Amino acid sequence: MSYREREHLYNEKNGDTMQSRQAVGGDESNEKTRLQKPVKLQPSWEENNLSEAELNFRNLTMDEASLQIHTPPDRYSFIYIIFLIHGIATLLPWNVFINAKSYFISYKLGKSYIGFDFPYVGNFMQILTFCSQVPNVIFNWFNIFMPIKGDLTVRIMWSIVINILLFIMTVVLAMVDSSAWPYEFFYITMASVVILSMSNGVYQNTVYGMAAKLPPKYTGAVILGNNISGTFTTIICIAFEYVSTSKRMAAIWYFITALFVLLIGFDTYFALPLNRFYRHYDIKHKKQQEQRINQENVTGSPPYFKIFKQVWPQLYNVFLVFFVTLSVFPSIQSDIKVSDSGFLITDDFLYTQILCFFTFNIFAMIGSILPSFFIWPSKKYLWIPLTLRLLYIPFYLFCNYQPEKITRILPVVITNDYVYWVVAATMAITSGYFSALAMMYTPSTVDSQYASIAGMFAGAALISGIFAGILISFLWPWLIGHIGW
Fold first, then answer.
1. Using CA atoms, how far apart are residues 204 and 198, in angstroms rounded to an integer?
2. CB–CB of 485/411 below 8 Å?
3. With a cut of 70, which residues of the chain have pLDDT below it?
4. What is the pLDDT of residue 39?
5. Per-residue pLDDT tens for 87-139?
6. b/e for 131-169, b at 16 or more Cβ within 10 A?
């Protein structure tokens, strides 16, 4: 056998071995290349076209990486309770002042104290609510298109601090003798209400924006807190009225109690960044914001008109539920008097506190809890029962509505106090239920990255409904004094 034939046979014999080695070497090379590629933990991450740095968790702590993947539980409903507390605190200034109506018009501005009939007593509640909501409505709409920048901690801290300082001033005004300067007392009180409303507008808007980062039930927690705030305020108002030796001491303890609640809200805010459940949604929201900012750098500012077009049916619902409620509460309800001398409650103070404030707040609170158990109607049909709630306005006008310094011409048709009480309860429970439902529906009608903007639209619609209801409430004293048959 020649040399060439022997070489050929050797190559055929060893060829498979060389090819297998090359294949093995190729596999090892491919494996090495594969290991150098980023590890993609979830298919959903791959769909986001994230950079290799993000996919390999570079620039992240292990805790932050874990929080992006897993949703921790809200243990013991801790975050829910915190937003409940902030819901109480955001409406506390409003509830404190409207429940103190007797203190203002019967004591500080009453004829027995100042020696003459104060001219603004008849419209005191309307003026108070007007001063409270004008800056609030302006701020809320302004803040949607030109958001206040800066750290949330600073915004909430200063808002609550301003509220605390103004309540301290209110306590001092309750302590001093203002009988010689009633006009100055009135204007100082209204100025403090305006400033309270401005600082509270920042506070309330921030809380709703924070809640919009979380699942919808946490927005419901804020609404529930709003309604608990009214119930709590009414209870302490009645309690201090009957355990204190004078209206002066009752007012002092009443306002001091409000201070403690604001301090609790101040303290609980600082627990939020320490909670893993809240941090998970905060990180998720920040990533969505980064995506939105990147998109805005390409496409411009957020598509406000598009967002508004998507959420306007729910904004109508939010506006209408608060418009109807504030048209009659507290402006009409607080001036409805006993019609039947044989009714269960005949004392004017107790009648107003229980049938107006306590009934509204307790049933509104119950109504705001109901969405946790069932949700009806759907987003599409919510406008129907809310539009029907407009019928509450003529009903209340035909009750025994007797505002101060107004001679009623319009006949009183509803003379049964039990009927009025039952209808007042239904008005309150529908207010709490439908307001919670509309506020929860609104952020869910847009893409998740625009949920906070939708939440701010809802907050602005809420304040606008309140403001419009307050404006029309100025008409009711004139209406019953000039229209009859």
1. 10
2. yes
3. 1-70, 139-141, 143-152, 288-301, 485
4. 46
5. 899 888 888 998 888 899 889 998 889 999 898 887 888 888 888 877 777 76
6. bbbbbbbebbbebbeeeeeeeeeebbeebbebbbebbee
CA separation for the pair 26, 305 (Å, rounded): 57
Are 363 and 428 contacting, i.e. CB atoms less than 8 angstroms apart? Answer: yes
Backbone dihedral angles phi then psi of residue 401, each to the nearest 5 degrees? -85, 115
Written as six digits, the tokens of 403 are 């505002």
Which residue from 239, 266, 277 is spatially nearest to 78, judged by alpha carbons?
277
DSSP bridge pairs for 401 = 336
Output helix, strand, coil percentages for the chain, rounded to the nearest 5.
75, 0, 20
Query: Nearest to residue 109, comparing CAs of 94, 90, 96, 122?
Result: 122
Measuring CA to CA, how many Å separate 16 from each of 12, 53, 139, 456?
A: 8, 42, 81, 72
pLDDT on residue 56: 46
Topology of domain 76-482 in CATH is Growth Hormone; Chain: A; (1.20.1250)
Phi-psi region of 215 (alpha: psi -120 to 50; beta: other; left: phi over 0): beta
Q: Tokens 């005191």 appear where?
A: 124
Structure tokens at 356: 């107006």
Contact in structure between 367 and 429 (CB atoms under 8 Å): yes
Is the separation of the CB atoms in 454 and 238 below 8 Å? no
- The answer, yes or no, to whether the previous bond of 303 is cis (omega within 30 of 0) is no
d(CA 330, CA 350): 15
Q: Are 444 and 216 in contact (CB under 8 A)?
A: yes
